[in-house]
Design goal:
It is built from two helices and 13 strands, in the order αβββββββββαββββ. By secondary structure, it is α+β, with helices and mostly antiparallel strands. Strands 1, 2, 3, 4, 5, 6, 7, 8, 9, 10, 11, 12 and 13 form a 13-stranded antiparallel β-sheet that branches. The longest helix is centred in the first third of the chain and has 27 residues. The protein is elongated.
């Protein structure tokens, strides 16, 4: 009898342990919100010597990725982003080149070939939690192709459905 009670207690302990582990795994997974660019999941900018495809998401910060394929210059201090009708201060923006943080003092980059720039904006509240309004990338000299800017119109970011896996919308 004692042996059966011990087995039942041991079985319950294992069940509770597995349930606790599953609960911890599920609650630690945050859900990202995919951005739409002018109501499309990706937005492509065409230059004379290549293309730049934009994609992005909101998680604990708002990230916009610029996927370059060609020859471009990037003026890092020329990016103009409106975050709910207010310009994003440079102190709240970090730019990564192929996942390496670019120095705050670097002003211009040459992109030749396939590279990714990720603009990461951290504000008080990530866009995914607000769920209203827009983030806008304004026309600027941020990306140049043969000396001409390729962002010539405002690009409006809004949110799409929630996804558990951000890999679903990566650009390859």
């Amino acid at each position: 009898m004692k042996h059966n009670v011990r087995m039942i207690i041991q079985s319950w302990k294992q069940t509770i342990s597995v349930f606790t582990l599953l609960l911890a795994i599920l609650t630690s997974c945050d859900i990202g919100v995919r951005f739409l660019f002018n109501d499309e999941p990706r937005y492509t900018l065409q230059g004379d010597s290549g293309t730049v495809t934009l994609s992005g998401y909101s998680l604990d910060r708002d990230d916009i990725s610029f996927h370059f394929d060609g020859d471009f210059y990037v003026n890092l201090d020329s990016l103009k982003v409106l975050y709910f009708n207010q310009e994003v201060p440079n102190l709240h923006v970090k730019i990564y080149r192929n996942d390496v943080l670019i120095s705050f003092f670097e002003r211009r980059l040459r992109i030749n070939g396939k590279e990714v720039l990720r603009v990461s904006m951290r504000d008080v509240v990530p866009y995914k939690l607000v769920k209203t309004g827009y983030i806008e990338i304004l026309p600027s000299d941020f990306i140049l192709c043969n000396g001409k800017p390729i962002i010539t119109d405002t690009i409006r970011l809004s949110t799409a459905k929630r996804y558990k896996s951000l890999k679903r919308f990566s650009v390859d």
